[in-house]
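Regression test attached.
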Amino acid sequence: DSGVTQTPKHLITATGQRVTLRCSPRSGDLSVYWYQQSLDQGLQFLIQYYNGEERAKGNILERFSAQQFPDLHSELNLSSLELGDSALYFCASSPSVGLAGYTQYFGPGTRLTVL
Amino acid sequence: GQQLNQSPQSMFIQEGEDVSMNCTSSSIFNTWLWYKQDPGEGPVLLIALYKAGELTSNGRLTAQFGITRKDSFLNISASIPSDVGIYFCAGRNSGNTPLVFGKGTRLSVIA
């Protein structure tokens, strides 16, 4: 158990809908990262937050947005969903100091299926 | 963007055999990480490497941070059935930059 929690585990919805994925980082970790993993694809970085502020952006679609709250949990919002958005979505967190800050610990993921 | 080339893409080995896989990058990294992912689960951190030339072990797993800082290797000795999964390498330039992942090596172990 990495200490990172994600809910829900599975999500099935229809095209055009909007969903919210939730992540709680490990205790004490200030950084949260979101990744998308499609079938037979590697992990694609979407966005990073550090202590409530956006720190880096990857290949995140305009239909997607995220935020990190004062209690450090993060939410990834996906709107106007398309079939191609079906994927595993992972959250990761990392410590804030020292060399350990270079590592990331992943949650169990949310499997999104868009029908 | 940065690309990591991970090889081989897949491996079929007999239980008890040793395994080697590697990752190369077109640019320098300051950190190399190796993860294992089981189907439908999140990647689990196996080994973290922070210095060029560093050799680190975790049980039957050994990983090395290449001297050029553009490559890393993971070896698994005496493979067992629970080693089955996808192994990902990842590199990072600094504590504030996102990880760049390889496409993974899918390992199958034949008992």
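Expected vs. actual: identical. Residues 25 and 62 of chain B are 19 Å apart (CA to CA).
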